[in-house]
Amino acid sequence: MRITFRTLFILLLLMPLVAWAQGNNYMSNPMVRVVMDTYAAMLQENPEDYETYFNRAKEYFKYNDYGKAMADLNQAIKYYPREEASDLSQAYTVRGLIYQIQDNDMKALDDFNEALVLDSSSRFSLICRADLLREMGDYKQAKDDYQLLLRRDARSQEAYLGLAIIAHKENNIGMCHEYMDKAQQANPTNVDFYITRAEVYEEMGEWQKAANDYITAMTFGDNRRSVAGINALSAVAYEPVIAALSQAIDTADEKGFFYFIRGSIHMNNQHYSASIQDWNTIVEQKYLHFHSVYYNRGYCYMRLGQFDYALDDISKAIVMKGDQMSYFITRSKLYRVMGDYEKAAEDLSVASTFDMTHKDVLSQRAMLATEQRGYEAALGYYNEAVLSNADDATLYLLRGDMYALLQDLESATRNYELLLNIPEHAPEFTTCRGFALARLGRVVEAEEWMQQVMTSIKGIPSPEDYYNAACLYTCTGNKVKAYQYLEEALKAGYGDYFNLYFEYDSPVSLAPLRNEPDFRELVRSYSDVF
Fold first, then answer.
1. What would the DSSP string read from start to end of 310-346?
2. Distance between CA atoms of residues 401 and 408, nearest Å
3. What is this structure's pTM?
4. Is 60 exceeded by the pLDDT of residue 119?
5. CA 465 to CA 491: how far, in whole Å?
6. Predicted pLDDT at 459
7. 190: nearest Cα among 217, 155, 223, 151
8. What is the DSSP code string of 367-410?
9. Which of 93, 143, 338, 493 is deepest in the core (most CB within 10 A)?
10. Which tens digits make up the pLDDT trace of 195-204?
11. Confidence at 506, pLDDT banded by 50, 70, 90
């Protein structure tokens, strides 16, 4: 799907404002159900009511139910009188957007063209066609459309931004910046502009400017997209993101929000000590009184091996907000690591009341059973987890390792091979493919896979990337490479003391190295990161 934020924004202008639902559960909202029932009644009374088909299609679109939206749009287009050209043009435009989302670019282009035949003055249709042509690489035609937009409106931000993106693609960086400056001048308070420009800066490798634009979008009230964007950016440009957030904290009136974002980014990038400092500031200055502040601080303490502090904070979060399944799962793991199996089991029992088939509930139950030598029970939990999470690679590793512990090597091998049967669209650590290869003795393939993963990383590898590479080489028995990548991880600021010394649940760990003097000395030499 290559539809842009601002193309979606254009579509929103065509639609009435309503609260967006998540996923396909929108019909559980009584208000939505009333609206949809009303549309159904109107269509039952008049099966050729094209306006109702169109309005319902837009509702379906907002809830990502593209199949139903497409069906209604087809009916609307079928019954719309040709003389109602403007409304019919919009119907073609919305259908074109659905085709674009479905990666059917030629049909999308046909619909945008038809929309403009019906209403050549439609700004929305022209922007959609220009953006699609640009995404398809037809820069000449896209430029023609953007220039037409500018002739109609010399302050068209969409046109300037589209031309800026094309200039970047054509490696005309000076012109790219010039167009982006004009786009900003055209509408300096448009949140969507800053989100899109941040994405362009990311492609150009101008991390600081990208981070600044995400923060500007936050100041204009867009928290969902801008926070997601800056979080993703931090994985490849941690320091520029932290610098931008620190500057925002210095100048912002509402400092608590930016401390929260910075603390979260520190935490997500395994800089737990720095994260704790931000949570401490939030608590001490009384900026925010959220359960998540205490949970996040407790989680960071846990990753640093400071279990008593972690237990206090996570328990406080549970008192404040007792309906968070993840809180109980984390505290259960903490109790288990501390050796309190009874309380660990109690927390998992509570977590199971939210979703007894959840992968994390079942896997934690398996791990608790394993520690108490209940291997058959553990295997049963892994079997349940795999049934509802058939594409989760880690479960096959865990179940395979359990079979290996039970000396059933045939079943262990079958699980590792099942993991390899899961399609891998691109080499990445989350597929765990190399770890299965290593367990099957296919060491050369495992290490080749790992190198493919590292070379495919966008930007500079993160501390976690280096840590994962160290784990893979530990698994293949290549200690030289394992220590090399471990030192790279620590040098880059990898601060997860729990993973280094305590994590043995995960099939991706450094457990075989922990008792070696070289390992302890290496970690000790970088103790400042903890």
1. HHHHHHHHHHH-TT-HHHHHHHHHHHHHTT-HHHHHH
2. 10
3. 0.81
4. yes
5. 12
6. 72
7. 217
8. HHHHHTT-HHHHHHHHHHHHHH-TT-HHHHHHHHHHHHHTT-HH
9. 93
10. 999 999 998 9
11. confident
Q: Residue 31 has what pLDDT?
A: 86
Question: Are residues 493 and 529 in contact, defined by beta-carbon separation less than 8 angstroms?
Answer: yes
Residue 192 · residue 9 · CB < 8 Å:
yes
Other beta carbons within 10 angstroms of residue 292's beta carbon come to 17
| Chain-centroid distance, C-alpha 79 | 41
Taking 70 as the threshold, does the pLDDT of residue 8 lie above it? no
Phi, then psi, of 425 in degrees rounded to 5 = -70, -30
Of how many residues is the chain composed? 530
Report whether 233 contacts 210 (CB < 8 A): yes
- Closest alpha carbon to 375 in 352, 401, 356, 411: 401
Residues 242 and 263: their CA atoms lie apart, in Å, by: 10
pLDDT band at 38 (very low <50, low <70, confident <90, very high): very high
Domain edges within the chain: 424-530
